C-alpha cells in the first residue's frame, strides 16, 4: 500500500494525470475508500489470480480508460497501448518504438 499512497501523492502534486496500480484484490475496499475520500476518479478491473488493475487520476483520463473498456492490457490494440503509455507519462520516444514493434507484430498475425 506504500506504493499506492505514493501514487496518490504524485497525482495530487500534478506529477501524473493517470496512474495504473496493480495489486491484490484484498486491497480493493481500502483503495476505493482512499480514492473516494479524496474525490479521485478511478476504474478498477479484476484481472484474475486475485489481482486488480486500478486506474485513477483526472476524470478525463479515467473516462478514456472506461471507453476503451478492455479488462486486460494484453487485449489493447497497438493504438490503445500507445495512448495508455502516453497518458501514464511513459517516455514518448520509447512509446513510439513500442507502438511500431507492436504494430509490426500485430499486422503479421492478422
UniProtKB/TrEMBL annotation:
InterPro entries per record: DUF2023, PG1857-like_sf
Ranges for domain DUF2023: 3-101
Coiled-coil ranges (or none): none
Domain of life the protein comes from: Bacteria
Name the UniProt record assigns to this protein: DUF2023 domain-containing protein
